[in-house]
Write a structure and sequence with these properties.
Two copies of one chain form a homodimer. Chain A has 359 residues and is α+β, with helices and mostly antiparallel strands. Chain A has six helices and 18 strands.
Chain lengths: 359, 359
């Protein structure tokens, strides 16, 4: 069981404690003298490439690699006041102090004068602290803690989906300096976007078209085919399969997919969540042991159904990938990837899967 | 005038000299003992996200940051044999020794068993050396040399478009260690893809839809609106405008667009090419001077029309952008960008344009 309590930080932001035990005292008050931050976030439409970009000019001043002694994600103790008022915690979620999207975004930023079209950056950006221990990582969490994180992400997905204007909830973790992580304390993030990302929209369109044609789910068909082929399967649990995609874009990329057709994290049963905690930790540990020069930097993200469309045909998946292609060598997104949008993968997916299996 | 001569390297690859003067002796022979490289490139289709990825497992062993004394893009001299047999050159284009795409890609790699679909990685990857001087940069070239590079890119676009199976020709330059550049000698690249990149396809669809609706060109409308607004214009020449896009994804991003509706580089007149040489150098120099900690790393790419479709509605543009957002700070493509495909820009486009104008 996961037990939730909430409070507000000194500048009015919401914070949620997700505890593994009931009745923990979470009444600690944020005593910092914290001015409200100004945000000027907006979304702008690109009529040529058909996608929204978020413009958040106020974020340039955000916290950038503070020394460990100043970590804002540690619990507050010994007179040092952080973002988390409590002296200890299991899992904590709170609103980002420097958000790219906010429910307070100003309406002044709306414009619709072809070819220029913009709207306020309505939404939420939340930080998810996985543990009060500054010096560990997700891969080293106990399965029970991984389960608490999953419960927290599911709960936040449900709540954020209710905000007017929110069209997509994306839960993710950036891990490693090479990904640009500015705070090393183990944490993830949740973005609630005011639009369905164009990449997600394409996948929803694919799922819809396949369902119209066949009456079945595309992701179900892909997972079934991967399990039958076997060559790209990394590990299976009773209710989930982790496999490298046939057309992987990243050197080491794994999709973790539930066998049951479910749209999002809140739809998972207790059993599926427990099973997920195990296989997810297993996959992260494989990334940790891939290279001789230390744990691989990675990005992990949850591909959930959009909030208001195509929920019936969408099939949940987590995507974990690293940009390290060999010890000391990164996969850079250069001309082909960032300019033309064409990914070149130097590691054959079958080779990647074999290495992740430990062969 | 640009004068072309061609030769073959020791392993059979083609090389083209683009000279600024006629009758230069380009008969030098490649005397290296160079084994033919094996390539196993294929393209794989992602049925969910609807895009091709290139899988080039043989490329892991490619040259990685050789010491300056071993630069393979220097001319051959004093007994040191490089990729360029001549002792000096103006502009040289040759086939990449470690290509991601090749006309020799094996048919064995074709597969069409839903959901798995792949095809041989037919195409070409070429290297474009801008100057024999190892220690300079594109921004420092003379306008006449920039013009020669433009002529070379236009000529290669024409030739590569004739290769059976090639659907898109992308000319680009990666500059700077932060972009992952492995050879510091000033050079660009050309990729001839066997498909239209999905991002390009979206832009072609937009252009087609706008043309169907209005009878006009979308890019013409955008440039006209940007010139009228003025706030995002960086610099104008007689025949070209350089502006930051309204919905820029990168901290500093500039589109250089010809005023005339032309589909690609080969279609440019002599006058347009001369004018482009000037404004292109001007824009690169602005990127060089943006930050106190040295020239900005950048990616520059040419958005040309697809080879076989939508050529009538496509409008040529160059896109130049940097991933540096402030001195010492990079824009990383983390969870939102690489996971969800949503770009967050911390620099407001109008602010970026003002800074690029020198205000």
């Amino acid at each position: 069981m996961t037990f939730r309590q909430s409070t507000k930080l000194a500048d009015g932001r919401e914070l949620f404690y997700y505890d593994e035990h009931p009745d923990v005292d979470r009444s600690a008050v944020d005593h910092r003298d914290l001015p409200a931050t100004a945000t000027s976030s907006q979304i702008r439409w690109d009529p040529l490439f058909r996608e929204w970009a978020i413009v958040a000019g106020h974020r340039q001043a955000r916290t950038y690699r503070p020394p460990t002694s100043d970590c804002p994600l540690d619990p507050s103790h010994d007179g040092r006041l952080t973002e988390i008022p409590a002296g200890d915690y299991d899992v904590v979620v709170f609103e980002n102090r420097f958000p790219s999207l906010t429910t307070q975004a100003s309406d002044d930023l709306a414009l619709d004068a072809f070819p220029f079209r913009s709207a306020p950056g309505i939404g939420r950006c939340e930080v998810v602290c996985f543990t009060s221990d500054h010096d560990t990582s997700f891969a080293q969490l106990a399965p029970s803690r991984a389960r608490t994180v999953i419960d927290a992400l599911a709960d936040r997905t449900t709540e954020l989906s209710r905000i007017e204007g929110v069209e997509y909830v994306f839960c993710f973790e950036n891990r490693g300096e090479e990904i640009g992580v500015t705070l090393t304390h183990p944490h993830g993030q949740i973005y609630a976007y005011p639009f369905v990302p164009s990449r997600t929209e394409r996948a929803a369109d694919s799922a819809r078209a396949y369902h119209d044609d066949t009456g079945h789910c595309l992701q179900c068909a892909i997972v079934a085919a991967e399990r039958q082929a076997g060559t790209r399967v990394v590990v299976e649990s009773r209710l989930w399969t982790a496999h490298v995609p046939f057309s992987a874009r990243w050197p080491y990329e794994v999709r973790i997919v539930p066998h049951r057709h479910v749209p999002d994290l809140p739809s998972l049963t207790d059993e599926e969540r427990d099973d997920l905690a195990g296989i997810y930790l297993d996959v992260l540990q494989r990334f940790d042991h891939l290279f001789s020069d230390g744990p691989a930097p990675y990005i992990s993200g949850w591909q959930q159904a959009p909030v208001h469309r195509d929920r019936d045909v969408w099939h949940l998946a987590a995507e974990v990938f690293t940009i390290r292609r060999a010890p000391g060598k990164l996969k850079y997104l250069a001309g082909s990837e960032s300019g033309a949008g064409v990914w070149i993968n130097d590691v054959t997916p079958e080779v990647a899967a074999a290495r992740l299996r430990g062969e």
